[in-house]
Each structure stands twice: as structure tokens, then as C-alpha cells.
Design brief:
Chain lengths: 132, 188
């Protein structure tokens, strides 16, 4: 049903394949170092979202389950609300100040995955299901 | 100095993006604009914002615009009737079985992700064929209804199937023309 952009996409396919590991490593780097260097959950998540979008650019298949991505994203949202509530209002942050950095990294990771999934859902929905 | 050059380039790129006639090029210029803007953020000492700008504005937004451009195609349907001046619009568009045909073609276009655009005109058929700006021409003379479709357009086959299946009672004929405007008649 969905035809590729042009018949010859092998250049895009090869370049995307070469860039894939670098995108993953760079995205994770931006997320994991977000608390003391530029970047953070949102930016790293946007970089990670390029993974699925690049795949869409190469293959134009719709075997990506948007429904499942929705579920995971909602679960992440619940965790994202629960963790700060437990950590800050449960006064864990005062009792164990050495956990602060781990807490920041964990929150950045959660935000990163949520943003990556959210942007992927937006783009895929737009590319496949958007009706007038 | 660097700052002045960057700012001037930004203004220049913005003007080019607005003034370009081809939409695809405007999108590309907008992408370059965002990239320069993110460099300017970096120059002003906001690397966080710069990363967000580079990823979102020059990556994802450009991609979204290009996808939108690819999906948005206009399918122009011309409805011509040489006795148009004696008949008013409501007779054609509303109520009648022919109005239903037009609506159905419209629905078909939407299901194929094309933007239907229907033009009603009293102009002569040969003039319309020569203009070549229409993807489909429907001509009405009295009870006879003739559909002219370009042979190279592959939507025409499906449209023909649709019309044959749904409108057997209508006095309807399907004609294809090729690039030299020779008509290929088919009995249907």
C-alpha cells in the first residue's frame, strides 16, 4: 500500500545502518550525562526517536505496533509520576543524600524513553494513519 | 563579527524560505535556518537549547513537513456541461444520482489520500483536454455521462471499476486519452 520514496534507497539504507549504533550510543550518552552536562532526558529521547524514524525512512513498513508503544508510554508516565512522589515527598532525598545522583539519572532515563516513544508515536501516526 | 554574520544569514534564510515558490525548497531552507539558529544558541552559551533546537527543529520538523508535502496531492476533477447556463448548480450537485456520483468520486479520492477538487464549468471539452490541468473530466450531455481519464493515471482503473459496479443504470461511458490526446473508447 505504501510505496517507497523512490526505487533506489540503498544509499539511505546503508548510511542509516552505519549510523545506527552511533545514534544509540549518543542518545544514551546525552541522557545519562544530562544531570551535569548539556542535554538531558528530552534531548536524548529525541535523538533516540530517530532510530524508529530512520527505520521508517528506509523500509516504509507499518509492522511497528503503535498500540503497544502507547501502553509502554503510559506505564512510563505512571512511573514518572510515582518516583518523584516517593522520593521527594517520602523524604528519601533527605535521609539518603547519596542517592540524589542516581535519582537524577533514573529520572532522565525515564523521561528519555518516554520522549523517544512519544515522538515515534507522533511521527508514525502522522505517516500512516492520519486522516483528514 | 561572527554574531553579525550569523544573524544576517538567519534573516536572509528566513526571507528565502518565505519567498521560494517551491515548497520543498522552502522546507529545506527552514532546516538550514534551524541549524544556524542552533549554532547561534551555542554561541550565546546555551548548549542545552542548541541540542533541542538541532534535533527537533532541523530534524523532526523538516521530516514532518516533507511527509506532509508527500501526502498532500490535489486531484482535480472537472465537471463540464455544455448546457450549463440553462441549468442551475443545485440540479447537478444536490439530490440527483449524478450528484451522488460526484460525491462518491470525492470519497474515493479521500480514501486514496488525494485532495479532491471539483470544478464545474460550461467550457467546451476539447479546450479542457488541451489544457491538461485536470486529472479527470466528466462531461454531461443530456442524459449521457462521459468520463475522460488520463491513461497513465493508475487511479483511473479503480475509478472505472467503481463506476461500472455502482452505476449500471446510468447511461455512462468511460474514455481514456493518452498524451497525444487520442481517445480510446471502451464499451462499458
Amino acid at each position: 500500500m505504501i510505496e517507497p520514496v523512490s526505487k533506489d534507497t540503498s544509499i539511505v539504507a546503508v548510511i542509516t545502518g552505519v549510523l545506527y549504533p552511533f545514534i544509540i550510543v549518543f542518545g544514551l550518552y546525552v541522557i545519562l550525562n544530562g544531570h551535569n552536562t548539556p542535554g538531558g532526558g528530552f534531548q536524548g529521547g529525541a535523538i533516540l526517536a530517530v532510530l524508529f524514524i530512520g527505520r521508517y525512512l528506509v523500509f516504509h513498513t507499518d509492522d511497528f505496533s503503535i498500540h503497544r508503544a502507547h501502553l509502554v508510554e503510559k506505564a512510563l508516565l505512571v512511573v514518572l509520576i510515582l518516583v518523584p512522589v516517593l522520593f521527594i515527598f517520602g523524604s528519601l532525598s533527605r535521609r539518603y543524600p547519596q542517592w540524589n545522583e542516581a535519582y537524577l539519572i533514573f529520572m532522565n532515563l525515564l523521561i528519555g524513553f518516554k520522549v523517544a516513544l512519544g515522538l515515534t508515536i507522533v511521527v508514525f501516526r502522522y505517516a500512516f494513519f492520519e486522516d483528514r | 563579527m561572527t554574531e553579525a554574520i550569523l544573524l544576517l544569514l538567519l534573516v536572509l534564510l528566513a526571507i528565502i524560505a518565505v519567498e521560494t515558490q517551491i515548497l520543498r525548497m522552502a522546507v529545506i531552507f527552514l532546516g538550514i535556518f534551524s541549524l544556524l539558529l542552533s549554532f547561534l544558541y551555542l554561541y550565546y552559551g546555551a548548549p542545552d537549547v542548541a541540542i533541542a533546537e538541532a534535533v527537533m527543529a532541523s530534524g523532526l520538523v523538516t521530516l514532518l513537513y516533507l511527509t506532509a508535502l508527500k501526502r498532500h496531492r490535489v486531484y482535480t476533477i472537472c465537471f463540464t456541461n455544455e448546457m450549463f447556463r440553462e441549468v442551475d448548480d443545485r440540479y447537478i450537485i444536490e439530490g440527483t444520482r449524478r450528484g451522488q456520483l460526484l460525491r462518491e468520486i470525492e470519497q474515493f479520492c479521500i480514501s486514496k489520500e488525494l485532495e479532491p477538487q471539483i470544478i464545474c464549468t460550461p467550457e467546451d471539452l476539447s479546450l479542457l483536454l488541451e489544457k491538461r490541468s485536470y486529472d479527470l473530466i466528466i462531461r454531461q450531455e443530456g442524459d449521457q455521462l462521459t468520463v475522460y481519464g488520463n491513461q497513465d493515471n493508475y487511479f483511473v482503473d479503480e475509478l472505472e471499476m467503481l463506476i461500472i459496479m455502482r452505476y449500471q443504470d446510468l447511461n455512462c461511458k468511460f474514455i481514456r486519452y493518452d498524451e497525444e490526446l487520442t481517445l480510446h473508447e471502451e464499451a462499458s
